[in-house]
Amino acid sequence: MPPFDPLLWRLAGRLAAHITKLSHRALDIDLAPHSMGTARQLLDRMLTATERGWHSAAEHLRWELRTRLTECQTKINSGLRLLSSGVFGQLPPTQRLIYDELVAVRAEFTEFSFDLPDETVTVFTDEISLEGIDLGRFEIRLQGRELGGTPYIIIPESPHYPSSRSDVPHPHVLGERLCEGDASAPLAHALRTGRFSDYFQVIQQTLSSYNSESPYVSLSGWYGVNCHACGDHVSDDDESYCCEECEASVCSDCSRSCQHCNKSGCDACLPNCPECSSNCCSSCLKRCDGCSKLRCPDCLTNTLCEDCHAEADPDEETSDETADEEPSDPDATTPSLTPVPSGRVGQVAVPA
Prior knowledge:
Layout: H1 6-24, H2 33-51, H3 55-85, H4 95-108, E1 112-115, E2 120-124, E3 128-130, E4 133-136, E5 138-143, E6 152-156, E7 173-174, E8 177-178, H5 184-192, H6 196-207, E9 224-226, E10 233-235, E11 240-242, E12 249-251, E13 256-257, E14 264-265, E15 286-287, E16 294-295, H7 306-312, H8 314-324, H9 330-333
Antiparallel strand pairs: 1-2, 2-5, 3-4, 5-6, 7-8, 9-10, 11-12, 13-14, 15-16
């Protein structure tokens, strides 16, 4: 049996006091109007970004909206399950029970620490690998003063972020918050009853599992990039291109090449020539000296577009058209010569 730890005992007493206060309060479910108002704002911003073709921004706002709605749904489901579990009305856990639980947590995890002034308990998970992707170890930090809300945070020891996001260290962790899913009810029950050993184990098991239906970033798309133009994911096995103008990554379907200098780019940076619709980068597009309209090099003659060139020298166009015309019937334009008999020299033959 491990020796008695007086500091850990004092921490157990503080945690017991927090849980006692929670057990005496009515069930608190956050249904404040501002929560749905924020979700409405995110939805409006997402729709605006979609209409304007800002695919990356729309995708990011979609994840933010999903996270906010999931949090609201989780709180409601957790409250309903707690009411059904009969936790409310039971006696709160004692300081002795919580102390024994913390001693068990120390024995179950290879790294355990606590901070009495901050009232925190910290453990580290084992190395986590999901479907062949190494995610490393995660710190689980319980914050005793936050037991009434979301009392723990998840911190990666050595982050292995996906290529597309720098705030998703785990498929089910956004920032420092774990999407608990089906684990929300067991976690709430373990917290209310002071079963901290079960509490930390459930969190570690959730981090060690993968739900392909609700990840922030799927494991199949962990490595690779999102196409800046269409938003599709391009894995490392597929070919992606970098726009030489804006340096955005695009897929092979959205990549274009200037037909005049071979510069590669995206749709926004390589517009079509308004005259012939050929791909042309902004460097190769030039303005007509006459009308200032943009044209590719093939559509300019002496710095003039076709229309302005015709207006500047109409005679040349007319002479060219005349020179190109050939008579269709030579006999119709050349007079016929009738031979004159030798005895009638000096006389003119009169047609009958």
